[in-house]
Amino acid sequence: MTSKGTESEHPSVTLFRQYLRICTVQPKPDYGAAIAFLEERALLMGLSCQNVEVAPGYVVTVLTWPGTNSALPSILLNSHTDVVPVFKEQWSHDPFEAFKDPEGYIYARGTQDMKSVSIQYLEAVRRLKGAGHRFPRTIHMTFVPDEEVGGHKGMELFVKRPEFQALRAGFTLDEGAWDVEKTGHYSSHCSPGVRVTSTGKPGHGSRFIEDTAVEKLHKVMSSILAFREKEKQRLQANPHLKEGAVTSVNLTKLEGGVAYNVVPAAMSASFDIRVAPDVDLKAFEEQLQSWCREAGEGVTFEFAQKWTEPRMTCTDDSDPWWAAFSGVCKDMNLTLEPEIFPAATDSRYIRAVGIPALGFSPMNQTPVLLHDHNERLHEAVFLRGIDIYTRLLSALASVPALPSEN
């Protein structure tokens, strides 16, 4: 891929880089600057703009392009405004400069996750609206906070509010795969954080103390990590399985102890567990309880976020939404492989209230660098994404009334 000089930079790329320079990094995102940016875009594009404060300081911005038939449920294009933290010393360029190298790669936090998609939505709508197109279904674009830390002060609250109900969403697009141009996500992992706490006898570090917190915690960790290895082997043994089809487990935090020579009375281990949608959640919770009991007295666990039953969006050719989505991909020679998203996005909250949602981020020929150092995206890949969304929006917003909508 090659790139032209900055003097002839595509206006959409310039806009993208402008948005990337807004520092919405956790844990202290500048949401105000992002909202001001979106309000300005709405004004320039002739779209209505609504700001909904779902929690103090947490605002969902909604941009709306009305359709010709307000009786039809709308198309919802969702994206989040926050990005994950960075280690600046590990980056070759300032992660909020939006530096573009001579090859056309743009370096910035959010290039892949997911400010590119936000601007692709905006530019696809601008392109269609500017060309005089009108569609039966209204298109809403939601820009939500807090997704990178669970969405508890973002989409989780927004779907419960009357402002969300008023959108009358019939179908949703959200973020999806990054590395290939062939994947559409129709569900996602249930992703509770699990914290296991073990209590035991304390004492001096020079003694062989029985029934220590560390020994019992080690037993639970061994059980959970053995399960992890089993799932890993199951994935590796079956070339037809995708990551989203198995349950992933990672030990992410160990806590406890006060001094080198003191055996602690309590220790804890935190796990990031991404449960596959076909797993019986009650049975899995009982398995966690069993592992804790087997380790001994005084071993318990708690959820950082209690899981909910995941829902799946239909990807059958008979489904009008899927037919419209996959039809465009076929016309554009994009090979689709529907799969379960191995992580979790705000789509889980949308699906939970009964609205179908597909995760899709068109970023082919791109190294997967979300949440990583030197996150980047080539401008040509970004621009192609606008072309794809332009076609997708035309098709989705033109889906005739479904039998369930009459």
From TrEMBL:
Subcellular location: Cytoplasm
Enzyme class, broadest EC rank: hydrolase
Positions annotated to bind Zn(2+) 1: H80, D113, E175
Positions bound to Zn(2+) 2: D113, E148, H371
A GO cellular component entry from the record: cytoplasm
Alphabetized GO MF terms: aminoacylase activity; metal ion binding
Active site: D82, E147
Alphabetized UniProt keyword annotations: Cytoplasm, Hydrolase, Metal-binding, Zinc
Free-text remark on how the cofactor is bound: Binds 2 Zn(2+) ions per subunit.
Keyword DNA-binding attributed: no
Name the record gives this protein: N-acyl-aliphatic-L-amino acid amidohydrolase
Gene source species: Nannospalax galili
Gene: Acy1
